[in-house]
Fold this sequence. Notes:
This protein is α/β, with parallel strands linked by helices. The chain has helices at 34-46, 67-71, 84-87, 141-144, 151-170, 174-180, 190-208, 235-247, 340-357, 393-407, 412-425, and strands at 26-30, 51-56, 60-62, 81-83, 92-95, 97-102, 107-111, 117-121, 124-127, 131-133, 182-186, 219-223, 251-253, 258-262, 265-268, 273-275, 278-281, 285-287, 298-299, 302-304, 310-311, 314-319, 324-325, 374-376, 382-384, 391-392. The protein has 11 helices and 26 strands. Strand 14 and strand 15 form a beta hairpin.
Amino acid sequence: MSRNGRPGNGPVTTGSGGCGTGGRPRIVVIGGGFAGFAAAKGLTARLPDAEVVVVSSTDYFLYLPLLPEVATGVLDPRRVSVPLSTALPKADVVLGKVDAIDLDGRTVGWVDPEGGRGETSWDRLVIAAGSVNALLPIPGVAEHAHGFRGIAEAVYLRDHLVRQIDLAAVTTDPATRDARCTFVVVGAGYTGTEVAAQGVLFTEQLRRAHKALRGQRVRWLLVDVAPRVLPGLDERLSRSTDRVLRERGIEIRTETSVEEAHARGVRLTGGEDVASRTLVWCVGVRPDPLVAGLGLETDKGRLVVDDRLVVPGHPDVTACGDIAAVPDRTRPGELTAMTAQHAQRQGALAARNVAASLGVGEARSYKHHDLGFVVELGGRDAAANPLGIPLSGLPATAVTRGYHLLSMPGNRTRVAVDWVLDAVFGRPAVQLGLVRGSAVPLTTSEPQKQPERSG
């Protein structure tokens, strides 16, 4: 395998002996998200003589927290995607979707974007495949809703918002115009709240650009089964966020869900029918389906690990991030939340503990107290509680953006420049038509049996 992960001609087969080139240990990391990226970064630093192979379905690290700003025209999609080959220069990056793990034979197999197959052996395996959209068995949701987990979905949503306002401006039927100007977001956790908060600012800018829509109401609804928005955060932050959303005209439907979705809108629990052409699904995530095929013990769909992130019975296999059921030592009996903050820190610990298993350093157990949360609401508004101190307004915005810039592994200057341009000139309002709805279907395999509270 070459340094840049390009296998040359034919499938990648790196041997079956379980060792890297020249007897160097080979460590395979599955996933290039927060956990996988942090693990690979730490491994290349701690074990400079090891072969670190990262198998990822994308060739970039995606900074998910800023995806709502891509969907609403604030940021260029390239700002939130950092090339893995640049950010991990000492690792071999393989572009492929893992579909086979042989724990006894110590091999990992994958399929690349063009259908070719590859395989490699490993001495240590780090499973950090992340999560996918959660889907509830609600009639019509799979056909008419779109999730929000990747760049393609964000670009599609941005074009869709522009298109609906453009079409509303030329329709002569008031009911159709109202439906195209009505946007429904399901899930009032981080993602759904930010999509609604940013979206209403974007569509209002779009509306003002059309003379035919002067006086037209642009309606946003945020729906969640929880009793309040941001149910996982401090109640004071939830209240301040709720206030900002309502001041922008967003209708908040708590303790409510979608009963049925169709091409012309949705029916909410309680019987309310909402005519709309937009249904954004942000109800939460579930572990990557890769877990189900491993034949290993799971807890709530996540791979069971001990507090050192090791899979029981497989001392050479570590799992971290959303895919792992990591015990939360700060809350006995609970699992760590599926958040980027936990994933990043678990990835770093996985690197430390794998290195320790190879004789470098000392292994530790995972224990992490939340350092606080940040929620970007667009404009001059945000909600944050750094170190437990609740903030709102401009101070929260400064903390939120500062946190994101410090957390990103690249593109910081470009992101900051885009924020300045947005504040001065507004957001570009053109649809490019690069991603069609059929290209970003909501994940439909194995829907959740029970609703999960978002956040």
